[in-house]
Design a protein that fits this description.
It contains 16 helices and 15 strands. The strands form 3 sheets. The protein has a 7-stranded mixed beta sheet, sandwiched between helices. A 4-stranded mixed beta sheet has the order 1-2-3-13.
Length: 471
């Protein structure tokens, strides 16, 4: 692929010499170089030499309405003409931010029953949304004079982002290496993944009881008067598409209420139809104090995040305002008018094309097709999902549920072979799982074709998987 005019380097070499890629091995990148993508439409992206690939990842869980939607491009263009930029500092405002705040709160009220959420704050990424939640919780307790109540409980396997506070809340060791993380005051409870972490003979109810007992022990050991908040994804995403075991989230919420611990729900992935319902909050009957949103709010057409704040928290902020002055938190791009306009157009598309309903319907079809094609494979241990958020987890021995040795990465082998079949799936960084999270606009025919490509990739990976299973 050619570089820009005036350069003697190929694009691949120019990339090697100029870009630092996120979450990428520098050594491997220098060896193999980039895969450069040029354009996309629907569920298909086009790469080098016109190669077309089905994207079973929707980018990074985020292109919910699909690629190349003119409605969103037009909304962005018009917003740039009307008000290319203005901030929200010092009571400044603009129409698209006001309407988006109202739209998000109304959606939550109508689809989740969480009528207690009454304010919206805007940022630019899921990571900064969780950093904002972290700061607002500490601010809340300081205003109440509870200077000791600052610790956060997250979970092993959780993913909450890579900014400083969010990366500490993340419970995947790879994100902590050489970054002096997690920071003090962050505690990680047990991972709620029944398939992988249940004990022999332990049913799902007993597994849930053990996790709840672990959470109670943490609170007892640390002291409820020192614990500020518990943060959780309704379904763990990057940690392996981990669905909550039966009764788990209800029991967690009961404990939080008993101990006056705030509940932060990270809906960065699960929001805007990914689970076949508008939000995980409604899907699992949650009552959060703060919600973090991003990704699907604009289908990643523009960087935008949001925090929804409960009246309980807001009342403390409001009551203290005369004494403490302004809430000194915010970003240059908070409530960016272009991003807000794109989000409004995106939500309109999700509604008019009934993409949330399509997610539920296509999710059932997707799960059935994966089960039909892969369940007999000796290294496919678990096929799971909710809506269009699915996963295949690999095992070295299905009968004994013996997992592959650490560092063998069988799912990476399968993902590479799937790419050879012109299918993009993501090998996740915590356990041996490939995830599937296509655009919510996907059709049954596109799912069928993608699953066939994945099955061919898995078959091509079998010789390597056999070798890895014996290590």
């Amino acid at each position: 692929m050619s570089a820009l005019p005036g350069s003697n380097l190929s694009l691949e070499e120019l990339d090697r010499q100029t870009l630092m890629h996120p979450c990428t091995s520098i050594m491997l990148h220098e060896q193999t170089g980039p895969i450069i993508y040029s354009d996309a439409s629907g569920v298909t992206v086009r790469g080098e030499h016109g190669r077309e690939m089905i994207d079973f990842g929707a980018g990074l869980w985020c292109v919910n309405v699909g690629y190349g939607r003119e409605q969103l491009a037009n909304a962005a263009a018009q917003a740039m003409r009307d008000l290319s930029y203005f901030h929200l500092f010092g009571s400044a405002s603009h129409e698209s931010a006001i309407h988006l705040a109202d739209q998000l709160l109304s959606l939550f009220h109508e689809t989740t029953g969480a009528g207690h959420l009454t304010r919206a704050f805007f940022g630019t990424s899921g990571s900064d949304a969780n950093d904002t939640a972290y700061k607002l919780v500490r601010y809340y307790n300081n205003l109440l004079g509870r200077e000791k109540k600052k610790k956060f409980i997250s979970r092993i396997g959780a993913y909450h982002g890579v900014t400083y506070a969010a990366a500490g809340l993340t419970g995947i060791p790879l994100y902590h290496t050489a970054f002096d993380l997690p920071q003090d005051g962050v505690i990680h409870a047990d991972c709620p993944h029944y398939y992988r972490f249940s004990r022999p003979g332990e049913d799902e109810a007993a597994f849930t009881n053990r996790l709840i007992s672990n959470l109670k022990d943490i609170i007892s050991r640390e002291g409820a008067d020192t614990i500020a908040a518990f943060i959780a994804e309704p379904v763990m995403g990057t940690g392996g598409v981990v669905l909550p075991p039966k009764g788990y989230l209800k029991a967690v919420q009961d404990i939080l209420r008993e101990n006056d611990i705030l509940f932060i729900v990270d809906e960065v992935i699960t929001g805007f139809g990914r689970l076949g319902s508008w939000f995980g909050t409604g899907h699992y009957d949650l009552q959060p104090d703060i919600v973090s949103l991003a990704k699907g709010v604009t289908s990643a057409y523009f960087p935008l995040s949001a925090n929804l704040i409960s009246e309980r928290v807001w009342e403390v902020f409001s009551a203290s305002s005369a004494k403490t002055g302004p809430v000194m938190h915010g970003f240059t791009y908070s409530g960016h008018p272009v991003g807000c306009a794109v989000a409004l157009a995106n939500i309109s598309l999700l509604k008019s094309e009934r993409l949330v309903e399509n997610s539920a319907k296509m999710g059932r079809h997707f799960h059935a097709r994966l089960t039909e094609r892969l369940s007999d494979n000796p290294y496919v241990g678990d096929i799971r999902g909710e809506g269009l958020m699915l996963a295949v987890e690999f095992v070295a021995d299905k009968a004994t549920r013996r997992f592959f040795s650490a560092g063998t990465y069988p799912h990476r082998v399968v993902a590479r072979k799937a790419m050879d079949e012109n299918l993009l799936v993501r090998p996740l960084p915590f356990i041996d799982v490939t995830s599937f999270s296509p655009p919510l606009s996907i059709t049954s025919e596109e799912i069928d074709e993608g699953v066939e490509r994945y099955a061919r990739g898995l078959e091509a990976a079998m010789p390597t998987l056999r070798e890895l299973a014996n290590q």
